[in-house]
Structure formats: C-alpha cells, structure tokens
Amino acid sequence: MKYCLCILILVLVVVRSSIIIAQDVQFSQFYANPLYLNPALTGAHAGTYRVMTNYRDQWRGSIEQPFTTFSASGDLKFTIPNAGGAYSKDNDFAAVGMMFYSDRVANIDYNTNNLSLFGAYHKLLSSENRQYLSVGLQLGIAQRGINYEDLTFGDQWNGATGYTEATQETLPANSLAYNDLGIGLHYSMTKKSGQSLYLGASIQHWNRPNISFYNNDPLYVNISETDRLDSKFSLHGGASIPLNNATSFQPRGIYLKQGQFSTFVVGSNIKYRIIDSDGVALHLGAWLRGSDNLTTFQPTDIILSAGYEMNGMLIGFSYDAHLRKLSGSTLGQGMFELSIAYTGEHDNETRICPEF
Q1: Share in percent of the chain as helix, strand, coil (round to 5)
Q2: Domains in the chain, ordered, with CATH?
Q3: Is the dihedral of CA 18, 22, 24, 30 positive or negative?
Q4: In this predicted structure, what is the pLDDT of residue 20?
Q5: Scanning 75, 126, 215, 247, which has its CA 20 to 30 A from the CA of 230?
Q6: Is 16 helix (H, G, I), strand (E, B) or coil?
Q7: d(CA 217, CA 225)
Q8: Torsion of Cα atoms, 30 then 36 then 41 then 47, to 10°
C-alpha cells in the first residue's frame, strides 16, 4: 500500500505545481498502448513479442462527426548474453518496435498519420527484486492533411443565402510531412511476493516540429515558425499489489504537460484471476481525468474500464463520461476505446509493465 500512496502523492504534487496543455490525442487506456506512452516501454513484457491495436471514438452523439483515432503497434525483444555467453532471465535485454497511428477530425477531413520506429535497452539493476532501468528512443515521420473543400471563408458569403462565392484566400499545399522524435526512461521492480512498482517519464516531439502548412512557403516563414508542435512531457507510475491468490490491486496514474496546459488521469484496476482456468483473468477499473482551465484544475471525466484476458490475449474496453457540458452536447456523453493485445512465446512470468 505504501507504493500506492507514494505514486498518488507524486502525481498530485506534480499536477499542482505546473500548468499543462494537450495537443495530441490521449488514450484513456494509456497502459494498453505502451509505445505511444513511453519509448522505454518497448519490449517491456513477459513474452518474446507483442502486437497491439487501439481504437478511440470521441464525442459520438455530441457532435455531428466524432473524432476517431486508430493505432497498431508491435515489438520484439532480444536477451543479451552475460559475460560468459549464457542466456537467462537475469540478463539485460534489448527491444525494437514499430507503431502506426492515425487521428481524424472528420468534419473538416483533417488527418494526422504517424509511422515510428522504436528501440529500447533494459538494464538489470538487481536480480533479487527484478529491478530494471530502461531507456528508449522513437524515430518517426508524420503527415498531416486537410481538405479545403470542407472549409468556408468570410469572402465566400453572398450576402443572402450562403457561402457560394469563390474565395480569394491564398492557400498552401494541403499536406505536409515532418520528423517526430521522442525519448523515454522507465524503472520497474518486481518482488518475489508478486508486488510490482513502475515509474516512467518521456519527452515526445522532442524536436518541436513545424506543423504549419505554410512551412515550405518562403513568403510565410515568419508565420510558420510560430506553429511548432510543443514538446509533450509525461510522468506515469503504477503498482501491482496482490490481495490474495486470485486478486490484485493495480493503481496507476499519468500526468501530461504540453505547452501551457495539463491533464492527468489517476485510478486503479482490480484484476481477478480465475484459478481453475488456464491464463484467464478479468479486469475492472475506475479512473478520474482532470485538466487545467487556465486558472485551476478541474475534474473532466469519469472513466470506467473492463478487460478480459486469456492465454496471452487481452481485450479491453473503456468509456469516458463527461462531467462538464460541451457546446451542443449533453452531460455524460463522452468517448469509448477498444484495445486488443497479444503477447506470444512467454518465457517467464516476470512483469516489468502493467498489462492493461
């Protein structure tokens, strides 16, 4: 329980001491998309390989066309032999991974696509408590596009019936590409009793890429330089505390800072393992999301999650219920997520990353 209290205090202290922003899509099931969360989590699983997919549908029923996000990723790890050339579970290991995600704002057909490669090295600090220190790197390329036919400008107003006139706006190319870099650090500890602790930090968009559609136009160089994507800083932690042979308590939290705004999610899963079955477990969780409204932090969403695990396959579902009204929406309408992950070729039962 002391690990849970430490993590909660750490999250609250950081949240109260800074102001944060979020320009990127954020997954409510943040630990179900580990490569998106932190490059240092590449290969942080008990098997040899892992494949994952995530889908997020945001504000369906609240706006005419919801925001949707899809990601697919996979990673593979390699054990590093010790000085004698032997392989064992008490060794360092390295990992590589790949992720693709696509985010779409349908009403203006604004799309962001990102393809990234990941690499991580996991250094064994202590074999007694299975302590690892991990560092990871992300190298990506992103593309953004928009459909100008779905936009209207003030000079198109005909004065009576609608926006039917031709625009005189000088529009740049409707697609751009840019490099995207990230780095992360992660610490994990797993005791023989089954208690686990995880702490991590990452910096995404380390290079602050220029995301202006005018960035290749010399006439607008001064304007486009102000449209750089702010680096995103994240701090996350979690624990797994066995309550009995079948049940474990899994508190987790994340804090995100991007530009001048911030958000955090804190909560817990309860994992119940069906003892008489082979690798079958149920997950239930409840979470609270808060954000900064430029003056104070306020709770914005309650997140409920459920998962089913069987033989290396884990399927998770979550729903975010809004606590505040949006323009043209009703209280409670929110967003849902679906995650599917499979971890193959299990070589041991050591966990250095929460599964869900």
Answers
A1: 10, 50, 35
A2: 2-159+174-344 (2.40.160.40)
A3: positive
A4: 31
A5: 75
A6: helix
A7: 11
A8: 80
The per-residue DSSP string of 18-30 comes to ------S---SSG
Q: How many CB atoms lie within 10 A of CB 349?
A: 9
CB 58 within 8 A of CB 70: no
User: What backbone phi and psi angles, to 5 degrees, belong to 17?
Assistant: -95, -5
Helix (H) or strand (E) holding 14: helix 2-17
pLDDT tens digits for range 91-132 = 899 999 999 999 988 767 889 999 999 999 999 998 888 899
Residue 12 φ then ψ, to 5°: -65, -40
The tens digit of pLDDT for each residue in 13-56 reads 333 333 333 358 889 999 999 999 999 999 998 889 999 999 99
For residues 321 and 334, is the Cβ–Cβ distance under 8 A? Answer: yes
The contacts of residue 65 (CB under 8 Å, 6+ apart) are 106, 107
- Residue type at position 19: I
Are the CB atoms for 183 and 41 separated by under 8 Å? no
Q: How far apart are CA 150 and CA 217, in angstroms?
A: 23
User: How far apart are the C-alpha atoms of 101 and 37, rounded to whole Å?
Assistant: 13
- As a whole number of angstroms, the distance between CA 267 and CA 302 comes to 10
SS3 call for 224 = helix
Query: Would you place residue 4 in the very low, low, confident or very high pLDDT band (cuts 50, 70, 90)?
Result: very low
- How confident is the model over 74-83, as a mean pLDDT? 86
